[in-house]
Design brief:
By secondary structure, the chain is an alpha/beta fold. It contains eleven helices and eleven strands. It starts with a helix and ends in a 9-residue tail after the last strand. Bound molecules: flavin-adenine dinucleotide (FAD) and protoporphyrin IX containing FE (HEM).
Length: 392
């Protein structure tokens, strides 16, 4: 909890700090990467750095954390912390690196805000930073121990061998991988992702996350869509073949299908159906009697990855329906399922827990439609295939 004195100072300076985040973040990353070039080469996602998305996420989340602390001084925004902690553990950040971020972030704040950063202001924001950092470190330590499954928690990366690969669509490739170290495959909750670490042509080790699209007989399955101008997705599709080696983190991610017997709604767009496919596989494999409503949007039948899985798994489940929307359907297709996903024509059962995954505009629309249909915000969970800018 923030001390009363710091709370007052943070509240008074929040508009100035929040308003200057756009200037503080580039300076912070420039300083940090100048002092530690290895962090940009081998830890941070340089695609996100280049397109600016991650830059807003880190500092923005500190401002969001401060705002939440001021609004509810006795609560900790745990959902926000969990998402960040899962991501941090999956890329292998170390506790001692919080000092590096602190040093360069605070130097950037002083550079931008100048004399406004009195010793009192600096001390108050220091308190916010370390409250958040220490809370993250505690969650991350716990998570690392949990996912180590008997291995060394400091040893994140495990070697895997590709046992099969196949093309889902023109742009989506599925990889089936097994551990190459003789230990059993890790347990994954349906909806979780792995981080994949790849050595690129320039020697950099770049890390990206891929949701598991299923698990089977000691193997993990993930599916990669080729991103235009993307480094790692292209590298995996062009260079990772059957028999090839790849390094993966343990399965992580705070969005996973919760046990229970209430209705479930799985809504996705495009490649956002990878976690939904894992959830459907799990429901079918456990013979779940739950009411399951799948909703998916894609450009057309040919760009729709896991089209056959969706049909087969829906047929296998006793109480499941699927509603597929195509923007430009090929051949005959119902008019009410043509265009973007629209939940107004889909019956949402009372008591539904919803899982969403897709681009931000899709998530916003579907979330609003679910709220309008009476689903409480607490029962709507979503995964984003990039830094979660809803946090900021
Ligand atoms: C939790 C999670 C789960 C995910 N699950 C999946 C999944 O199941 N399947 C899947 O396919 N993906 C998934 N992703 C996305 C995946 O992690 C990668 O982000 C994706 O594969 C693109 O990576 P890349 O290296 O190919 O692209 P990057 O090289 O990272 O590029 C990303 C984008 O930035 C642009 N860019 C690059 N450099 C610049 C520049 N200099 N200026 C401007 N723009 C630039 C690129 O054109 C591209 O559009 C997931 C992400 C997360 C966070
Ligand atoms: C209090 C301190 C920190 C905060 C508030 C913070 C916040 C965040 C946030 C919000 C994200 C994006 C999460 C998502 O939505 O996916 C993130 C990702 C990340 N963070 Fe941190 N972070 C902190 C410390 C650190 C440290 C010390 C490091 C290591 C030097 C680090 C490295 C990373 C990396 C590598 C990612 C993934 C980036 C990417 O793939 O683009 N963070 N962090």
């Amino acid at each position: 909890m923030l001390s009363a004195k710091s709370a007052e100072v943070v509240e008074a300076t929040l508009p100035a700090v929040g308003g200057a985040i756009g200037d503080i973040t580039p300076l912070f990353y420039e300083r940090m990467f100048a002092a530690h070039p290895e962090l940009l080469r081998d830890l941070f996602n340089r695609g996100n750095q280049a397109n600016g998305t991650q830059r807003q996420a880190l500092a923005g989340s500190i401002a969001a954390f401060a705002t939440a602390l001021i609004a509810h001084p006795d609560q900790r925004p745990d959902a926000m912390l969990a998402r960040i902690a899962h991501k941090h553990v999956s890329v292998g950040i170390r506790n001692d690196q919080y000092r590096i971020v602190h040093e360069h972030l605070f130097a950037a704040i002083v550079d931008v805000l100048g004399e406004a950063v009195t010793p009192e202001v600096a001390a108050a924001w220091d308190e916010v930073y370390w409250l958040m950092a220490n809370a993250l470190v505690a969650v991350e330590d716990r998570l690392r121990a949990e996912v180590a499954a008997g291995g060394d928690p400091a040893d994140l990366w495990r070697p895997y061998t590709v046992v099969a690969r196949y093309q889902e669509t023109d742009t989506v490739t599925t990889f089936l991988v097994r551990p190459a170290d003789g230990r059993p495959a890790p347990v994954a909750r349906p909806g979780q992702y792995v981080s994949v670490r790849t050595e690129l042509a320039d020697g950099a080790h770049q890390i990206r996350q891929y949701s598991l699209s299923g698990t089977a007989d000691g193997a993990l399955r993930f599916s990669v869509k080729r991103e235009p101008g993307g480094e790692v997705s292209a590298h995996l599709q062009d260079h990772l073949h059957t028999g090839g080696a790849v390094e993966l983190s343990p399965p992580l991610g705070d969005i996973a299908l919760a046990d229970g017997d209430g209705p479930v709604l799985l809504a996705s767009a495009g490649i956002g159906n990878t976690p939904m496919t894992a959830m459907l596989h799990h429901l079918a494999a456990t013979g779940s009697p739950r009411t399951v409503v799948s909703v998916h949007g894609d450009r057309d039948q040919l760009s729709h990855a896991f089209r056959a899985d969706l049909a087969q798994l829906t047929a296998k489940l006793p109480n499941a329906t699927a509603h597929v929307f195509y923007e430009q359907p090929l051949g005959e297709w119902p008019a009410e399922r043509t265009g973007l996903v629209d939940l107004s024509t889909v019956e949402v059962p009372a008591g539904t827990t919803a899982y969403l995954c897709g681009p931000l505009p899709f998530l916003r629309t579907v979330r609003e439609q679910l709220l309008a249909a009476g689903v409480p915000a607490a029962d709507i969970h979503y995964e984003v295939f990039g830094p979660d800018l809803w946090l900021v």
